[in-house]
Fold this sequence. Notes:
The chain is an alpha+beta fold. Helices cover 56% and strands 14% of the residues.
Amino acid sequence: MSNNDMLQLCIYTVSGLATGIFVHKIIMPMFARLAAKTSIKSDDLIIKTIRKWVIPWFLALGLYLGLKQLNFESRFYFWIENGLMIFYIFSGTMIIAKVVSGLIRIKAAGSDAIIPSSSIVSNIVIIIIYCIGLLIILQSQGISITPVLTALGVGGLAVALALQPTLSNLFAGLQIISSGNFNRGDFVKLSSGEDGFIEDITWRSTTIRAASDHIIIVPNSKLADMTVTNYYLPQHEITFGVEVGVSYDSDLTKVEKITKEVIKETLVESADGVKEFEPDISFVAFAESSIRLKAFLRVNNYSAQFQVRSKFLKKLHERYSKEGISIPYPMRTVLMKAEK
């Protein structure tokens, strides 16, 4: 290799690097600013992902053009071209995998709906994209992919037979996600008694974070067969009842009025209370020592009810005491039969 050849190779390589830096520092930020003005989040993700590959792309192109100027045997040029093609296909595959995986996690603009972003979905999508990219690389190199697909089919059948429990969890997880009844962050209660927030749905199991901050791991196949209550569907807001007992001597009209006022005050003062909720109570039973009533309150989410319930009971007890409404102790009248 002569000095002139080395000079040409350096010029092309440096030119490719300089062009890549220019596009990375000047052109791509312009597109990023334009994308930031739109309400669609996907274009920001695409530009951000592509920007990381701009410099390697132009550097590889400059190096390729520089090597083309050298006097090599034709077979070396063939290897160089194939190497460049494999690099571009592989980088494009990585970009597509990252963008699609990122789009799965993007919140739908203009609505509260969230595309499920569980690991099982992202992992399956990434694996499929990489497999397609690998097949494209093989096809570009003149390698027939038909025998590869045949081998994968036979091997897949053998793997399916050997991994039945694993595949059962995998397809159960896909079924759980596709049903739309579970999303990450939902508060659920299982028929076995456990409850908590869904952390993730993986290829094998679903993880639930309990109120104690511990993780509950449930195999997907087991979860699919359980009765599960989702407190975040069809909406996050829930109405809950609080039972109270008042004396038989109480004026029930006054009790109803005061209880409704306390409900309204509690919801207005609580950050998670639904301010627009119309207070409601109902008298439910003549108990042994009191008249039982149930007060209904509405909060933004399931876990908020416990704090709001506590605040309501304290305010109600204070208000009843002030208004002279008695909350009687449990009592029972015992008749003693006199001996002869």
